[in-house]
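Review form for a predicted model. The reviewer records the input and the model, then writes brief findings.
Reviewer: anonymous (R2)
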Amino acid sequence: MAKITVLVVDDSAIARKALKEILESDPRIEVVGTAPDPFIARDKILELKPNVVTLDVEMPRMDGVTFLHKLMKHYPIPVVMVSSLTQKGAETTMAAMEAGALEIVAKPVLEKHSFNPIAHELIDKVKAAAKARIKKPLSTEENKQRRKPLTSMVATTNKIVAIGASTGGTEALKDILMKMPPNCPGIMVVQHMPELFTTAFAKRLNDLCEITVKEAANGDSVINGHCLIAPGANHMVLRRSGSRYFVEVKDGAPVNRHRPSVEVLFNSVARNAGANAVGVILTGMGADGAQGLLNMRNEGAKTIAQDEETSVVFGMPKEAIKLGAVDKILPVERIAENILMML
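Model under review:
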């Protein structure tokens, strides 16, 4: 099997060395080159034609987001952002995701062995990116037309929606949530994303959507017109007290190598909402959420999987389909309307 070739772009020589060592600890990955800035990176991408680029957000001569815009326009390629774990870094990384980056990995402070905690995550995300279908970002006008809010006929307050996503999910979720009307059912989302970045992601969605979107806090109610995003590094589960749904945000071991895990959310929805729920599994590598979606369906919930054509990585939806967990397989642009029709 051919190795996944990677170009590491980072202005820090220490970071480039550390990232190279981590990536090449996996026998399926080869770092074919490194670059200290986007100008050198541009030349090396054309020369080496790597399968994946890891890209630092903040670099000299040209920032990562500006470089990414140019790269996606002229030479679309899978990109994994490696960003500092700061509020500014998180907000800039959200702009990078909108520009076409597929994944985010948090860069710890550079000390001896400090990269070890992200080793598995970095390797997994590079492998996922290598399988991605890269598409040209939609124009501003195309986005406006495709993401117009829908009209909801939902009158009940006891319906909920649970959505799970990974690689490519930030844009898929944006597509769905921007279409949701202010009276839509309460929504819970697990998007595989590092700590702090979920805060910036929720804020960005809240600015774009007619519904209220926030990073979930322990005890938050699941109510109409609101969407709760599981915070990075914490699981989110649905609880019920009488007619009230609320979430518990908690620590715990990773499930399917993820925290937050889609599986954890879906299993809790199966137990506590049953037929009052709709479950949606979106683009992503692996099988996180597939069994949980089947459990939801077995308890009477309606279920949707994103189709292969519009998935960046057709991993999680494919596994759910294989298990018989899915009622409908749909392109991402039709998922919002079908959620509303199922409730």
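Findings: The longest strand covers residues 29-35.
Further findings: The radius of gyration is 20 Å.
Recommendation: see findings above.
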